[in-house]
Amino acid sequence: MSQHLFLPLVMLAMCPTPGAFPDSGKVTELREDCGRPEPSARILGGSDAQPRSWPWQVSLHQGGGHVCGGSLIAPSWVLSAAHCFVTNGTLEPAAEWSVLLGMHSQDGPSDSAHLRAVAAILVPENYSSVELGADLALLRLASPARLGPAVRPVCLPRATHRFAPGTACWATGWGDVQEADPLPPPWVLQEVELRLLGEATCQCLYSRPGPFNLTFQLLPGMLCAGYPEGRRDTCQGDSGGPLVCEEGGRWFQAGITSFGFGCGRRNRPGVFTAVAPYETWIRDRVMGSEPGPAFPNQTQEPQLGPREPREENCTIALPECGKALQPGAWPWAVQVTVPGFRPCHGSLVSESWLLAPASCFLHSGTSDSGPSDLDAWRVLLPSQPHAERVARLVLHENASRDDAADLALLRLRAPVNLSAALRPVCLAHPEHYFLPGSRCRLARWGRAETAPGPSTQLEAELLSSWWCHCLYGRQGAPVPLAGDPPLVLCPAYREEEEAGRCWNNSGWTLVCREKGTWFLAGIRGFSGSCLRPRVFAPLQTHGPWISHVTRGAYLEDQLAWDWGPEGEITEPQTCPPHTEHGACGLRPEAAPTGVLWPWLAEIHVAGDRVCTGILVAPGWILAATHCILRPGSATVPYIEVYLGRAGASSVPQGHQVSRLVISIRLPRHLGLRPPLALLELSFRVEPSPSALPICLHPGGIPPGASCWVLGWKDPQDRVPVAAPVSILTPRLCHCLYQGILPPGTLCVLYAEGQDDRCEVTSAPPLLCQTEGGSWVLMGLAVRGSQELFAAISPEETWISQTVGEAHFLPPSGLPYWFPESGDLCPPDLAGASGFPGAAALFLLLLTPLIQGW
Ligand code: ARG
């Protein structure tokens, strides 16, 4: 489509005017004139240019504002980038554009500044998108520029011209000074020194996966300039502008700013359109204009730098931030002391800036107009003997209102020299996604009330954000997909166990490691509840603010990309329902079977027997009476309960909790010993991904549920197995086991071919997962049986009265225990108790199972 539009223009310009090119005296004159700014008179990491130092730099305006740069190559011709003028394959009309010449700042008119309309825009026929090259354009001005000290053309290289790798050249423009951070007023032209990179070096850098795990293939006609370590680069808005190199007192344009991956990122130098290969294309288009552009001969041999390294063994830049010799000995850990207050812990984020919670400074002599006594503040840096002084305090605009924005930046009076013992922590770009399973640490942050106890484990492992999202009561809320920026960071870590006390200490920040590099990933939780783990607010949303203020904080790309089972989830998930007491029965879809059954408890009875128990409330376990109490014995044994053991691999080691049982409660039953027992724990177990109560369901079986018997295959190693089962209708159950069933017994049928059965002496539970995603406890195995379970729901009243916080879901579906007449059993089933095999097959064929009622 684009070809249609610009082909006629290209063709027009291609018609040569015989004899008009180029060796007339006039042209020679201009040649001498090109590429020479007045004697003596940024971009990313650049600085303000001196007026008139880059007199060929033009600003291309569309709709009243600066869009791209360009360079004056002849009085009526400007060189720029094709992508500035092509939108969705269509070349924009020349009439929409104007060229501003002789500009220094975009702030206001100056003597030399003048504007020209654009008569024609010419783009190579084979241009389609920046990554495919040929990103250049010629603009013919409606009338020639007014040449003078501030307006002069640049020299163009001939096709044979060689710019040696390593040459220091300069790029100029009014583009962004950081990613998504526009040049601030008064919009003074920026300049930055960039080194030309050889093709092999550049390709080598781009062959290493960078942002978004992407690599890139350089094409002929492209040129790279910049540094492997990044930090100096062109950026959005610089496109079309020149990259110029000085040779023999003249400036030649080696490149046209074209594109990059982000701006100033490590191993991602800027990509320019090489100008020399387009000599003929340019000459052909401008043919006939007088005076034309100048292509002076290359006067000096290109100085060949050190031999170009081969692709395989080039030196890629490693992160300069986030390196610690030893976890915990953080070279970025700083302390700010405000007179009269305890020190406030923060982090070094660049040579000159610290990040700390704003709450440390909000009440310490800080007024709206800023703190009065910065002079008296002192900063203690790691490995530095003397305290540093603070020059400036910048509070986040939402600092006082929003916990997740409780941030302040402090500028040191003098930048520090970085070393192995003193270096900034890495910060994340907004699109950074810390993978579940990442190894993290909690680090001191702010002015916490209580010091961490000696046994506090500061190690943490990131869980899928599903956990915290759903645990913290966003029921029914859509869970961010893997790869979408999470709303919370959810680390599993060991908290101090304090009997009956709910911690409330927010003096932590979360640092996470990717490929050996530490990132400041999140700040203090939104506390106020006892839920575990405490969630952290992702810090990457503040990356743009931090880099805007500091202009040099170390924002690093995501370094690890192994998504694990998380990445397979592409369907949006929603959080299962909660009860009035909070979340229950949560289990992530992505959890591999056998892992993470947070309500599954090991009950060690008198040291020799192990029973299965189910956490039904923070201080209560439900278990089978026959497993807990010896027949006939009336004494209460010594019982220990362990949670967080099931699924050893998914929750970091050491996340188990143990409790003593202080009482055993049995419902009042006449005659037989009741099948279910409630065990009261010595103190609460705060809900967390390794210890979370299951949901209970009054009445029948939740409609559409899928059900499982959960237990251990072997009571020795106690690796959980879940065997899929169907629950039979009461009538079938009754018929199969006629006469021997106590009331309130559920019977199940194992899925065909299922031989992963649970061991029965530990009394495994029967669970169902509802359509809404909640896991519900239905029953506990009857002594010695794999198929019969003592149902929970007949004991609803007893459970709610004893426990108080049991998670009964709202009733749904039909009641299970409806009255039935007993004489409807098919004749061959009656009495087939104890061996339901053949009969069950028959049932499967003839009779609807309980599911789908
Ligand atoms: N395409 C950008 C523009 O339109 C120029 C980007 C240059 N980026 C870089 N990292 N060198 O202004």
TrEMBL record:
Q: What class of enzyme is it?
A: hydrolase
Identify the Gene3D superfamilies for this entry.
Trypsin-like serine proteases (2.40.10.10)
Q: Where is the signal peptide?
A: 1-20
* InterPro entries per UniProt: Pept_S1A_polyserase-2 (IPR017326), Peptidase_S1_PA (IPR009003), Peptidase_S1_PA_chymotrypsin (IPR043504), Peptidase_S1A (IPR001314), Trypsin_dom (IPR001254), TRYPSIN_HIS (IPR018114), TRYPSIN_SER (IPR033116)
Q: Does the keyword Secreted apply?
A: yes
* Single Gene Ontology MF annotation: serine-type endopeptidase activity
What superkingdom heads the lineage?
A: Eukaryota
Q: Where is this region: Disordered?
A: 287-311
What is the protein name stated in its UniProt record? Polyserase-2
Species source reads Cavia porcellus (Guinea pig)
Q: Which UniProt keywords apply?
A: Disulfide bond, Extracellular matrix, Glycoprotein, Hydrolase, Protease, Repeat, Secreted, Serine protease, Signal, Zymogen
One GO BP annotation is: proteolysis
Q: Which Pfam families match?
A: Trypsin
